[in-house]
């Protein structure tokens, strides 16, 4: 579904409380997660959140170049968020934009609290996030993908990081904002947390919420993250379960 | 005092493993009274210590490990060696050459140059400094023939097998000598390149099918079949 022209009067929420893609207000888009998507990376994951499609690749911990960036007591985490030129309707220049540089920083800061960086001093852990198709909530989907890729690389972490956005559309709160709702809605709040630690690692907001709305939005985001988190865990277990027999047979020896 | 997993259960980072008076082992961390997994792997409990056997990860150098390294740089009195770890290792000339050398007169490059591979042991490593190697001793030194292949580090125990059953079978059936580096590199040398190729393919088969039971017998059958062809 591609929207060429948009009337200001279009209804984003129908009378029976359905959104333009038929979702309920507190429903997330179909979420597909694939682990070990790339052969070349130490860890990788592919995420589809509705029409948003993202690949994350993790390298490291590895020797850091340039060397002067190395920290004596811990590893550094480097993130690159990048949108493919074909990921949006109008070609996006492949050069890093201001927005991409900011999102790289925001994603890095959302992941950093989850990692035991002090285990690998003087090294770097590199996360590359490539947006193949963008339909809103790309930073949330990037965090979902990156945290799975980090786990796939075997990098010790406190918890997986789950993320989801909450928005305000036509005066009502909606979970998992897509592009059209972000553009024509009143507010958008990307949110990431470590659910089993109950720690919020990303909270941004664009637009306006009243205090009461913010409280509700926060609750809704936590609920959304828990759904995402359950799927992340399930994807990891399904991918790794076949290795079970291997290690158990060695341990018996 | 509660345990929240069944033995050998696959756990993911953030999974609650235990609560109360337990010790946090490998890939497990403590937060207050609770113990959580910090990596993907299999949970186990041994003498009140909860640990997770990791299914993925990089090689972390440990003192005394046998490793296979690739020389990537030469300085006046030492070599810089890639050992497939987060840190490059250093091999001092005195830990490789039998005689002391005078760097003003002699270029150590003629003994060992960039691109050559060595079998070495880790002398010391503590994360604040790069690991130091020694290539002096039985079975250590420059690799002059044969092939070296790289496998996933977590598969190394499977390639060795229970009390060395897998590796002994490989050596016997292929007639090759095989050296396994703890850093996921394996050095094979046989009488003919064909023998080496059979051994390398058998090891790749083990890496691929590590989780399917009856592996030793299947690999033996595979080697016999390949040998009868050649």
TrEMBL record, chain B:
<keyword id="KW-0963">Cytoplasm</keyword>
<dbReference type="Pfam" id="PF15985">
    <property type="entry name" value="KH_6"/>
</dbReference>
<dbReference type="InterPro" id="IPR012340">
    <property type="entry name" value="NA-bd_OB-fold"/>
</dbReference>
<comment type="function">
    <text>Non-catalytic component of the exosome, which is a complex involved in RNA degradation. Increases the RNA binding and the efficiency of RNA degradation. Confers strong poly(A) specificity to the exosome.</text>
</comment>
<dbReference type="InterPro" id="IPR054371">
    <property type="entry name" value="RRP4_N"/>
</dbReference>
<dbReference type="GO" id="GO:0005737">
    <property type="term" value="C:cytoplasm"/>
</dbReference>
<dbReference type="InterPro" id="IPR036612">
    <property type="entry name" value="KH_dom_type_1_sf"/>
</dbReference>
<comment type="subunit">
    <text>Component of the archaeal exosome complex. Forms a trimer of Rrp4 and/or Csl4 subunits. The trimer associates with an hexameric ring-like arrangement composed of 3 Rrp41-Rrp42 heterodimers.</text>
</comment>
<dbReference type="Pfam" id="PF22625">
    <property type="entry name" value="ECR1_N_2"/>
</dbReference>
<dbReference type="Pfam" id="PF21266">
    <property type="entry name" value="S1_RRP4"/>
</dbReference>
<dbReference type="InterPro" id="IPR004088">
    <property type="entry name" value="KH_dom_type_1"/>
</dbReference>
<keyword id="KW-0271">Exosome</keyword>
<dbReference type="GO" id="GO:0071034">
    <property type="term" value="P:CUT catabolic process"/>
</dbReference>
<dbReference type="GO" id="GO:0034475">
    <property type="term" value="P:U4 snRNA 3'-end processing"/>
</dbReference>
<dbReference type="GO" id="GO:0008143">
    <property type="term" value="F:poly(A) binding"/>
</dbReference>
<dbReference type="InterPro" id="IPR004087">
    <property type="entry name" value="KH_dom"/>
</dbReference>
<dbReference type="GO" id="GO:0000178">
    <property type="term" value="C:exosome (RNase complex)"/>
</dbReference>
<protein>
    <recommendedName>
        <fullName>Exosome complex component Rrp4</fullName>
    </recommendedName>
</protein>
<dbReference type="InterPro" id="IPR048565">
    <property type="entry name" value="S1_RRP4"/>
</dbReference>
<dbReference type="InterPro" id="IPR023474">
    <property type="entry name" value="Rrp4"/>
</dbReference>
<dbReference type="GO" id="GO:0000467">
    <property type="term" value="P:exonucleolytic trimming to generate mature 3'-end of 5.8S rRNA from tricistronic rRNA transcript (SSU-rRNA, 5.8S rRNA, LSU-rRNA)"/>
</dbReference>
<dbReference type="InterPro" id="IPR026699">
    <property type="entry name" value="Exosome_RNA_bind1/RRP40/RRP4"/>
</dbReference>
<keyword id="KW-0694">RNA-binding</keyword>
<comment type="similarity">
    <text>Belongs to the RRP4 family.</text>
</comment>
<feature type="domain" description="S1 motif">
    <location>
        <begin position="64"/>
        <end position="136"/>
    </location>
</feature>
<dbReference type="GO" id="GO:0071051">
    <property type="term" value="P:poly(A)-dependent snoRNA 3'-end processing"/>
</dbReference>
<dbReference type="InterPro" id="IPR003029">
    <property type="entry name" value="S1_domain"/>
</dbReference>
């Amino acid at each position: 579904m591609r929207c060429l022209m948009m009337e200001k009067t279009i209804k984003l929420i129908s009378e029976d409380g359905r959104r333009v893609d038929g979702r309920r207000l507190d429903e997330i888009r179909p979420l597909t997660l694939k682990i070990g998507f790339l052969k070349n990376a130490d860890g990788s994951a592919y995420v589809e959140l509705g029409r948003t499609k993202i690949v994350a690749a993790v390298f490291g911990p590895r020797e850091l170049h340039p060397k002067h960036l190395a920290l004596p007591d811990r590893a550094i985490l480097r993130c690159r968020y990048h949108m493919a030129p074909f990921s949006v309707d109008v070609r996006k220049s492949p050069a890093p934009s201001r927005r991409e540089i900011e999102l790289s920083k925001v994603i890095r800061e959302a992941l950093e609290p989850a990692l035991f960086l002090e285990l690998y001093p003087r090294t770097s852990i590199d996360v590359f996030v490539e947006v193949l198709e963008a339909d809103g909530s790309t930073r949330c989907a990037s965090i979902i993908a990156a945290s799975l890729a980090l786990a796939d690389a075997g990098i010790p972490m406190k918890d997986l990081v789950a993320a989801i956005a909450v928005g305000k559309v036509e005066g009502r709160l909606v979970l998992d904002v897509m592009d059209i709702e972000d553009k024509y809605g009143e507010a958008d709040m990307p949110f990431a947390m470590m659910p089993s630690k109950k720690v919020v690692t990303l909270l941004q907001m664009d637009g306006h919420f009243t205090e009461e709305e913010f409280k509700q939005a926060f609750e809704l985001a936590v609920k959304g993250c828990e759904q995402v988190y359950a799927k992340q865990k399930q994807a990891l277990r399904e991918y790794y379960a076949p290795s079970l027999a291997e290690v158990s047979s060695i341990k018996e020896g | 005092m509660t345990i929240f997993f069944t033995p050998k259960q696959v756990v993911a980072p953030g999974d609650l493993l235990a609560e109360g008076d337990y010790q946090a082992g490998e890939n497990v961390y403590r937060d207050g009274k609770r113990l959580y997994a910090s990596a993907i792997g299999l949970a186990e409990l041994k003498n009140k210590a909860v640990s997770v056997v990791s299914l993925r990860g990089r090689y972390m150098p440990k003192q005394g490990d046998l490793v296979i390294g690739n020389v990537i740089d030469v300085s006046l009195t030492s070599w810089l060696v890639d050992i497939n770890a987060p840190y490059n290792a250093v091999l001092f000339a005195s830990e490789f050459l039998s005689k002391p050398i005078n760097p003003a007169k002699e270029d150590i490059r003629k003994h060992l140059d960039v691109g050559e591979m060595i079998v070495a042991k880790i002398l010391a490593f503590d994360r604040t400094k790069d690991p130091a190697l020694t290539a002096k001793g039985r079975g250590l030194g420059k690799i002059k023939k044969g092939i070296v292949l790289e496998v996933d580090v977590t598969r190394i125990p499977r390639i060795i097998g229970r009390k060395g059953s897998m590796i002994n079978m490989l050596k016997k059936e292929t007639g090759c000598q095989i050296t396994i580096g703890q850093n996921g590199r394996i050095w094979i040398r046989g009488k003919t390149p064909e023998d080496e190729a059979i051994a390398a393919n058998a090891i790749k088969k083990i890496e691929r099918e590590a989780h399917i039971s009856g592996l030793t017998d299947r690999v033996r059958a595979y080697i016999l079949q390949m040998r009868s062809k050649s």
